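User: Study the fold:
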Amino acid sequence: MRVLVVNTGSSSVKLRLVSGGELLGSTDLGAPSTLEPSAVADAVGSLGADVEAVGHRVVHGGPAYTGPVRVDDEVRAELESLVDLAPLHLPASLAGLDTVRAALPGVPAVACFDTAFHATIPPEAATYALPAAWRELGVRKYGFHGLSHAYAARRSAELLGRDPAGLRVVTCHLGAGASLCAVSDGRSVDTTMGFTPLDGLVMATRSGSVDPGAVLWLQRQRGLSADEVFEGLERGSGLLGLAGTADMREVLARLDTGDEQALLAFATYVHRVRAQIAAMAAAMNGLDAVAFTGGVGEASGAVREGSLAGLEHLGVAVNPGQNEAARGDANVSAPGSPAGVAVVTAREDLEIAAQVEATLS
């Protein structure tokens, strides 16, 4: 099946044509809010093959959508009702969905959710210890990056020559956004992001986990508004807040100069990843593999090595030479290490295409 994978961001719509696990063509378009159906139709025509189905990456499926779903008017309306759960992401996803549906009206479309993979997380891991009235509003851990985590877990088993049945792997999606996932026997059992993508690890501009009391203190004692706190946590924190840059490549380049801000930013970043790898391993009662994916996870041997330093007691370590040389999919496990380490090229497009085919068949 030739599947057009649509990945809608705030500033662009990425189109990937996939068939049989192979990328047939790709193109990037403008912002979803300004995109016209004619431009999508022209772009699809330039890919040189008829589209048989469309798969849309949708960040949030709420509590109802725990797997991919064929899009019709009813589903479209239900997705609109979820915008409050992801106001930064869902409007763009819906704009892209509407434009592509208008451009390809006779082609079946499937929504694939980043939250859906985490629907298998047990209640004790997904529940916040909050008043019942708040929990009834839907405040719980949802988790994100599920499409990436699902693919990375499966692909790492192949790279390491491990049987995916029963495999306990921590998948590390490290990019501008970052999260870990504990994947046991192919199922998510815990993850670091929570109700929103702000939770968990240090990211490019997002804070990761912060004591909620600190947020309340900033509002009550320092007079910051909710909007000011939101902007600070979402766009002014993470690597940017620590080192003045959101680019891990610049942070790494400044380490050799002894730059104190860069040293602190890197140490804080890998400390949080290392601690959460151990937490994910605890959720699975052990560890068989760690997989790194995403822009930072794939590109930086230093981040991978730093993230695993001190976890030898879990039986995991990298081969320094292979780790430094890794480009693309690779096995970078230390010789004799009980737990394997893999680098996995992020391919959400393949995961979405596979989900589309399974849904329509």
Observations:
- The mean pLDDT is 96.
- The chain has two domains: 3-113, 162-348.
- The longest strand covers residues 22-29.
